[in-house]
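PROTEIN DATA CARD
Card holder: Pseudouridine synthase
Chain length: 248
Origin: Brevundimonas subvibrioides
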Amino acid sequence: MTLRTPVSLTEDEIAAVRSWVIHEDASVIAFAKPAGLSSQGGRIQAHTLDDLLWAFARSNGKRPELVHRLDRDTSGVILAAKTKPAASFLGKAIQAHRLTKTYLALVSAAPEPPQGDINVPLVRQEIGRESYMRVAAFDTKGAQGSRSRYRTLASSDDGALVELQPFTGRMHQLRVHMAHIGRPLIGDVRYGGALTAGGRAAPRLMLHAVSLTFPHPEGGERTVTAGLPEDFSALAASLDLGSGWPKG
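Structure generated from the sequence above:
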């Protein structure tokens, strides 16, 4: 893989990133990323998941490489390639839309209808130092086609648990699409989500990448899943949306 300047990690950081591993074989390694950790880059002066991958560096200085990203406040499955051929294979698979990503999200009320497709173009907009996405007409300069599917899994008087699947990979796509149909994600300040739910403060953006199905470089398909983190399952339970979800 790419040779870069190694990042110095503490013993606690190495132990943490190793504890997040949910699948590993000769070609790939998958993590259950916690919320609040940037995948790559970002302006916060703290180690990203990409930095923490130095914990898996080999003696020749090569280390795994992330093949996709999650927003900083989104938790769940994220995949890295352990070899250059695996990285190339998975990069092509992503371009061909052969990865199936499934998310769980909390919203303040059940969508109407309870399931459906959202197929609207998005355009990137810079406001100060922040980047946003907004719904745009198909002929807007810079607009990109984007499509997501949603399905309501449980609902109550205080909110709903929805399953989301993106068919394209635009920045903030699921967040903007759900806001577009009037159901912004709880805790999503940027796109109009509620800061409280069921009388409790939302601890963060309530979006979790629960599973990823991908073609494996060695053949066949693999599905990797990440149980719900405690903050997500606790808020879901407080909204009377069930408490029996698999925990991370």
